[in-house]
Amino acid sequence: MHPTPAQTDMTLVRDRIQDLLDRDRDQSTHASRHRAALSEWALAEPVGADAGTGSLLPVTWLIAEGLRQAEEVQVSARMTCALACIGRACWPYPRGLKLDVAQRLLLVDPPTPDDAVWAAERCIRNEAIGAVVMDGRGLGMTATRRLHLAARATGRSVVMGRKREELRRPSAASVRGVVCPEVSETGRPRWSVEVLHRKGLRSEGPRRRVVERCGAAMAFVVDAAVADGSVATPPRYRSAAIG
Amino acid sequence: MPRWPTDRWQRRRGIGRRRSVETGLVLATTRAGRREVAACCARAWRECVRPGMTLSQAGALVAGELAVDEHEPGADAAALTALARWSTRWTPRVATDGADGLMLDMTGCDRLWGKPGRMARRVLDAMDRLGVETRIGIAPTRGGAWALARSGGGAVVITDTMQSLVDRLDALPPALLRVEPAEVDGLAEVGVERIGELRALPREGLADRFGAGVLRRLDQALGLVDEPMESVHGWTPPSVARRFDGPVLNAEAIALASRELVDGLCAELVRRRRAAGRVRLSVERLDERLHTQIAHREIELSRPTRQAKHLWTLLSPIVERMHLGRGVEAMTLTATRAPRREDRQLSTGLDSTGDVQPSELPGAGAGAPALPGVVDVLSARLGREAVRRVELIDTHVPEAAATTRPACEAREDRQVNKDRHEALTTVRPTVLMDPPEPAEVVLMNPEGPLMSLRWRERQARVITSVGPERIAPRWWRVRASTSIHDAARDYYRLQDDAGRWLWVYRSLTTGRWHVHGLWP
Hints:
The complex is a heterodimer of chains A (243) and B (520). Chain A has 243 residues and is α/β, with parallel strands linked by helices.
């Protein structure tokens, strides 16, 4: 049974998510140095549950993560940035988002995977776009390397949705993880987010968080007890650790 | 258009033609030191005011108030030319005719408009909407049409054949042949008061007796002499072209020439104070059989621009992928849509023809990078329909409450009720399924809570159910619509035993359940 998650504000939520993704922190200034990257996420199939949504992407997490990345760019660049969603599978329903967030979306429907990679790279290199969320199913190592290099060069992030089995294949992504739905007593959708792979970052630190969607801004309330590690919650999905 | 000067005067001031019925209007000019009537409205005409009489005479004839203003023949002529260009929507050959008329060559237009009377009614209706009193004459010859329009035989007078035209002309006075007043007087002296009487006279003596103009005008009206028409030219879009000495297969040369075309077009746009909203690249190339074929490719921009760099960014992928065939002979770059764009001095000190545009995004600060730039680049390669923005619509029906539109369409965002939107965001799914997928639900009892859900051939136990939220149909579409969505629906937010949240509804008309959304 999960303890009731504590209500937290956006700052604390951001810190917890950053801990999860192991961002470098400057201890003297307590400021977070944003490290742009390509991250890949898959929707995991819960153990013991019949898979009915296995072909979907974890859109809620992708959009929330994309908005969070774009917000960091906005703060540093002091301007409003758009969020580019490439691939119909990751287009959110706008009525489930805050009004100003819905109006900042740029939706791209490329006809081929090559066009998708090209569009993502063009968006990443545009200053008016804070982050890119894309449907990365079927992309190979070459495409991921190209996007990763573009993200590092511009200081912006690409948040990519993948199939579960694609997380086992080689990729240039610096972060790879799975998102699994969890039973919630609070009436809000809940997921566990586990980072399976972090490249070039600190190996210690938490690898898993339980998050709930809070409000229309796609903020996540983090299960404080689970984050503290005081309650051990075994993963409830089929997974294989990848290096 | 017998009242062209006064109709134009009233239209310019936003006054409908029928308002002149209340007060008379006269446009005056100064001639030989006295103020004379140059043109008058229909009401003043009925009160026997005529061009050429003095203003004091006109004022004495018109009962009530008489509005007087200065006659502007130059402005009338310019407006008539503009009207002629506007009239090219009916036929490509339109010319001004005198100070108050238009001549339209309808040859070949019957395929588009059908019978001449149908086209005449359209023209009449359009002119009436513009507030211009119009009379139309249709005849096989230009002179004949001129005479019929001014014959007073009605708003539209049509003769289809030469014989019917001749029969009509015979009854009309010679003045309608466009002869000089002195020639008309000469004919009246000998008792010629109808064109038919003039036609009956021996041709050999007509030119000698009454002047060469009379015979010439008569022959023009009867179609015996050709009368060419110099039509106005419509608006020509800014365009630059390059023709090669022979077929060119070198891709670098084509790219270089294309870049020069872009620079040339932007210079032309600056000169004409316009910006390109849509650009077309036309390439003449030889095919396998060495026949010349012309290929077009158009690019639409989300915001008009005349920056060569931006245009080249959009065009260069097209030029790179262009099929050269057996060689390119010529290339033309045209701004098919080029709205006016005045130079403006920017406070940032950038060049005065720059296209720096503030971002469309809400809350954008001054000098924010332009989102339209990347929209143009994406649209040029992926297609106009592949790059989209969200458009919210104020309706309670979920599938109709949000749609998308091409991002390059410059359109104001619709006003959306923000409070209502924010109130619903927490209960609306992240993903909406289109179309909703059928599901089977097991209830504890007919009106009780949901027990289990079968969807996509998978069974799941429901552990949380929030609802119902009833969404009523759009009553104005219920009878006409056969859509399952135009029925009242009860929505529930369900959580299954795997932690997945689904947005399901039951149609109150059919009783069937569907999964409409998810929080994946």
